[in-house]
Design a protein that fits this description.
With about 290 residues, the chain is of the alpha/beta class. The protein contains eleven helices and ten strands. The protein has a single domain, classed as Alpha-Beta Barrel (TIM Barrel), CATH 3.20.20. It starts with 20 loop residues before the first helix and ends with a helix.
């Protein structure tokens, strides 16, 4: 029997950006052959972030070698990385005057290092052109390659992120091709390589997870030293993606935020529209301040 789409609750709304806000930055990114996850993943916060002249850049192309059933990024065979991308990226960041940049990528299982060296090249170019700009990365799992994690870290980042996305019981349905324990190991390895770097992860709610399962994931993340946590509502990009099992109300997000803080996370952002890089600079700053107080 065909499933019925849940009605979107009245409180799940996002403010529209000022006219022209999106178009102005989109034009710049197109001219420089750059992609943003804001657009490719249909992020609900794109208008707000673009209006503040911030963006999460999607490097290594916009075609992914995996086919996660929640994600709006296109699954196809990607082309080789653009050697000019680090230069174009630095040019955009310099023009926008950004003091904090988030870099993420599609998964590139076709590359021997998963794209780690390209991450490093982008980071180093940014440091060269914009030395005052802090850099956060949100990386794929690199198939568990510790040397790839080290390549990215040693290039110089403030925050190293890798998303768990959902509870392990739902991985086969939600994240085919991914492995929960491997993702935990990526975060653990990053913290072991450089204990001073903040590690970060995120989960989506509304895919059928149970409270006890979520609680275990939060405990697992703390056990590998994860510092920053984001919790948000899964929003179905299209009819071809996984259906929403449940809309989680704001009060439940608030309760999970309190529980996560009680577990020892340095910063938690929890709400229906929260995404991995939403207000990332604020998260890093609060985590730093808390670390200095301890």
């Amino acid at each position: 029997m065909k499933s019925t789409e849940l009605s979107r609750p009245s409180w799940l709304t996002v403010k529209a950006p000022k006219p022209g806000t999106l178009e102005k930055l989109q034009e710049m990114f197109q001219d420089l052959s750059l992609h943003t996850i804001c657009e490719n993943a249909a992020c609900p916060n794109a208008g707000e972030c673009f209006s503040r002249q911030t963006a999460t850049f999607l490097i290594l192309g916009d075609l992914c070698t995996r086919n996660c059933r929640f994600c709006n990024v296109t699954h196809a065979r990607p082309s080789l990385p653009d050697p000019k991308e680090p230069e174009h990226l630095a040019e955009a960041v310099e023009k926008l005057g950004l003091k904090y940049v988030v870099l993420t990528s599609v998964t590139r299982d076709d590359l021997p290092d998963g794209g780690a060296q390209h991450f490093a090249d982008c980071i180093k170019r940014l440091h060269s052109v914009c030395p005052q700009t802090e850099i956060e990365v949100l990386v794929p799992d690199f198939q568990g390659d510790e040397s790839a994690v080290k390549t990215v870290l040693t290039a110089g980042v403030t925050v190293f992120g890798h998303n768990i996305e959902t509870v392990p019981q739902l991985y086969q349905r939600v994240r085919p091709g991914a492995d929960y324990r491997l993702s935990l190991a990526v975060l653990k390895t990053a913290k072991e390589i450089n204990p001073d770097v903040f590690t970060k992860s995120g989960l989506m709610f509304g895919l059928g997870e149970e409270p006890a399962q979520v609680r275990q994931v939060l405990q697992d993340l703390r056990s590998v030293g994860c510092d920053i946590l984001t919790l948000g509502q899964y929003l179905r990009p299209s009819a071809e993606h996984l259906p929403i099992v449940r809309y989680v109300p704001p009060e439940e997000f608030a309760a999970w935020e309190k529980e996560a803080y009680d577990l020892g996370f340095a910063f938690v952002s929890s709400g229906p529209f929260v995404r991995s890089s939403y207000r990332a600079q604020e998260a890093a700053q609060v985590a730093k301040e808390r670390g200095e107080r301890l």
